[in-house]
Amino acid sequence: MSARGPAVDRLLALDGLPALAVPAGEADRARELAARHGLVREHGVDLADPLITRVERFAAERDRPAVADRTRSLSYAELAVQARRLAALLEGAGVEPGTVVGVGGGRCAAVVAAFLAIELVGALYVPADETWPAGRVRDVLDQAGASVLVAVDEGGDAPALLEGAAAAGCRVLRAADAAGLEPWAGEPRLPGLDRPRYVLFTSGSTGRPKGAVVEHQGMVNHLWAKIVDLGLTGDDAVAFTAPLGFDISIWQMLSPLLVGGRVEVVGDGVAHDPVAFARAVDERGITVVELVPTMVRHLLDDLPGGPESGLAGLRWMIATGEELPAELARRWLAAMPHARLLNAYGPTECSDDVTHHTVTAGDLDLLRLPIGTPVVNARLHVLRECGDGTWTACDVGETGELFVGGVAVGRGYLGDGERTREAFYRDPFGPSPTGRLYRTGDAVRLLPAGAGGEDRPTLQYLGRVDRQVKISGVRMELGEIEAVLQRHPGVRAAAVVAHEYPAR
């Protein structure tokens, strides 16, 4: 175990959060507006069922392919055995409930098994991507208080990964070393729905990343949100394309396993080549893909013979990570009428996406596409700050800042009470499963029913209210870049701005 103690001991308690200033009577009005405009979506989800339990259930009922990468394919039974062997490796290394386990390397089947193993022993997952420099690996593992790092690459570990782990005082375990172990025979250690399940590090304005902690209930709810809204079944194959440090990687590698579907791991060499990627989608029977709009544009531009020459089996294209332009949506709908286009929005701090919107031709007359309506069990509020520091709820047509409540809201930033108090509040609009409210920093407008063909009000994203930007889907704080530049002895002061060039 890390000398710094269990990660849960370094999280801010609910009573340590500030209260959102809401005038008397305004909380009732805000609740009424949210309910009237469809910003609260209740849906029954079994949040207590461990992922490994469902994997083993499918293995026993009718074994089938579960996850495949470029070197191998694992059935549900093989995935469950590998997860339990990795759990035995972790327990032998002294991993206990509440501690943080790093998983380092590239996307592969072993990452999925490692996540399930970490769930089994009741630890927290924190990824370290193989492309990160050693300093980033060190910062993430050190801030997380990771006791061990599971290296998943069989063909040799990235030197920066090992260097960063050593600098963080993190013991390295190789996933391949679990092959000869007896599978761990215990029951999954999930004593409560509010147990933290993973930590993902996002950009921070101080020059150091900040670790957003997501609870078990928030994670599982989001996995089911994707299943419900995409209609995922055992016949689906989801492309696992996201870097390990990107929040969408969680649902891409886990949601299909809840319904008996397949996870198809796509490496960077293929994922970054539109022609090779389209070929992989067709050859591997992939039905659901999630990409940043920039990559969607390349896919439409570069397919030989046009988009109609490939992607015949695709059911859904999900656009995420950056704003989806209406012009790009128009091209997709025209070229790929058989594959529905989903505009997804959500912060890492709230278990990933909190809104979904299926784009239709009716949306294309809007200057900016809607980001949609809440995913299952999300509670959204559009609020405007008054001159006296209090907040009031916005009605249809008004612009405000988006706040997220409900089961999706995470626990805050690991070991960083100051930044947690800047973004998380006690929810005055409860009752809520978490009691927390997250301030997104995003300006939105609630469009009236009928806008874009929707039969109910829908949210429209208008931009950031602070200096955070997204570049190729990666969230960045300009202040973080400035802080890093100013560490150099030859730099006295630095200012960073983002300039948007027109699409070619």
TrEMBL record:
CDD domains: A_NRPS. NCBIfam families: AA-adenyl-dom. GO terms for biological process: amino acid activation for nonribosomal peptide biosynthetic process; secondary metabolite biosynthetic process. Residues 59-414 form the AMP-dependent synthetase/ligase domain. The lineage of its organism: Bacteria, Bacillati, Actinomycetota, Actinomycetes, Streptosporangiales. PROSITE patterns: AMP_BINDING. This is Amino acid adenylation domain-containing protein. One of its GO terms (cellular component) is cytosol. PANTHER family: FATTY ACID SYNTHASE, NONRIBOSOMAL PEPTIDE SYNTHETASE. One of its GO terms (molecular function) is phosphopantetheine binding.
